[in-house]
Amino acid sequence: MGASSSRRRPHRRDDEQYADFVDASQHRLRRTAFLLTGDWQLAADATQEALLRMYVAWPRLERSGGGLQTYARRALVSATVDQLRRPWRREAPAEIDVNIADGGQLEDQVSNREVLMAALRRLPPRQRACVVLRYFDQFSVNETAEAMGCDPGTVKSQTARGLAALREIFAEHGRIDAAALIGEENHR
Predict the structure, then answer these.
(1) Rounded Cα–Cα distance for residues 64 and 68 (Å)
(2) What's the CA gap between 112 and 110, in Å, rounded?
(3) Helices within the chain (DSSP H only)
(4) Which of 40, 45, 132, 159 is deepest in the core (most CB within 10 A)?
(5) What is the mean pLDDT of residues 15-28?
(6) What is the pLDDT of residue 62?
(7) From CA 41, how far away is CA 51, in angstroms rounded?
(8) Cα separation of 109 and 89, whole Å?
(9) What are the two backbone dihedrals, phi and then psi, of residue 97, each rounded to the nearest 5 degrees?
């Protein structure tokens, strides 16, 4: 037998299970990635990268309990942080695509969302990940630590620093002038 036949290839059943998992999880992963990046295209790229990492690891992933979701979150956070650290990604983020609806009256939410996204983009990637996972995805400290591949103490300190930075941003801008905050960010 050749070297290529000794590698385990996913069976058709594995591929079907993977496809079912992707169908059930990709939208939530993309939303989380958007909150981490502030950009729908970067979110799509990070989600695709995370799902690719899952496909590669699929034959050895635990399918019971929260194993798949845990691995997916960890892969997503890792892919997102990797993307944000790339030098060519440090350019000014794209404007928020207001045409992507999330089920609510988008017109009423755009201003608040822009302000929040602009403030989140000011946080370093790990602080942003902690704040998003803890407060938007409502993960526990331990779930966040597992998703980020770090200790719970790191999650607590990064979350505290991220929240403190957000408080400073909001305090600095008072009731928040969205145009000023976003315009200031684009001139950095």
Answers:
(1) 8
(2) 6
(3) 3-6, 12-37, 40-57, 67-85, 106-121, 125-131, 141-148, 152-172, 178-186
(4) 132
(5) 89
(6) 65
(7) 15
(8) 27
(9) -80, 100
> Does the pLDDT value for residue 106 go beyond 50?
no
Q: What fold characterizes domain 10-95?
A: Rna Polymerase Sigma Factor; Chain: A (1.10.1740)
Tokens 């892969």 appear where?
A: 75
Level-2 CATH architecture, domain 104-188: Orthogonal Bundle (1.10)
Spatial neighbors of 143 by CB under 8 A, at least 6 apart, are 70, 73, 133
Please tell me which residue, 70 or 187, carries the higher pLDDT value: 70
pLDDT of residue 103: 47
Distance CA 120, CA 181 (A): 12
Name the amino acid, one letter, at 18: Y
pLDDT at 152 over 90: yes
User: For residue 15, what are the CA distances in angstroms to 19, 50, 54, 144?
Assistant: 6, 16, 11, 28
The residue ranges of every structural domain in the chain are: 10-95, 104-188
The pLDDT value recorded for residue 136 is: 85
Q: How many other C-beta atoms lie within 10 A of the C-beta of residue 85?
A: 11
Closest CA to 83 of 42, 26, 144, 124: 42
